[in-house]
């Protein structure tokens, strides 16, 4: 079993089940300390290579993933791996796409869809899930 995230570290979100996931902005420097063991990058273009395992989900800024099924599969994988690994979810600014993905993880974790956005805004970032279509995506996420 890997060492998990420090729950007090910036960007670390505790899901209702207790799993820890780090959200972050790729435009900012990599935080000091532990690195992820698995990451999902939500970007309009392929990210630079990283030394840990990662998946790229094509997802333009302020919009939705280009392939919703692939995004859901990746988020389910991230949720499963977060039980024993350091999982990171990140986009350019770390708010809209990252917040949307974190809200979907909360739904996978058992939180009702209609509570997920508020939970992420309270626990991660008050501006998370930036657009009406991102909120709708979370409300319909399965």
Automatic annotation (TrEMBL):
Gene3D superfamilies the UniProt entry points to: Protein tyrosine phosphatase superfamily
Superkingdom assignment = Bacteria
Q: Which UniProt keywords apply?
A: Hydrolase
Keyword Hydrolase listed? The answer is: yes
Classification via PROSITE patterns? TYR_PHOSPHATASE_2
Q: Which residues form the Tyrosine specific protein phosphatases domain?
A: 66-123
Instruction: List the InterPro entries.
Output: Prot-tyrosine_phosphatase-like, PTP-SAK, Tyr_Pase_dom
The answer to whether keyword Hydrolase applies is: yes
- List the molecular function annotations (GO) for this entry: phosphatase activity
Q: Which Pfam families match?
A: PTP-SAK
**Name of the protein in its database record:** Protein phosphatase
Q: What is the lineage of its organism?
A: Bacteria, Bacillati, Bacillota, Bacilli, Bacillales
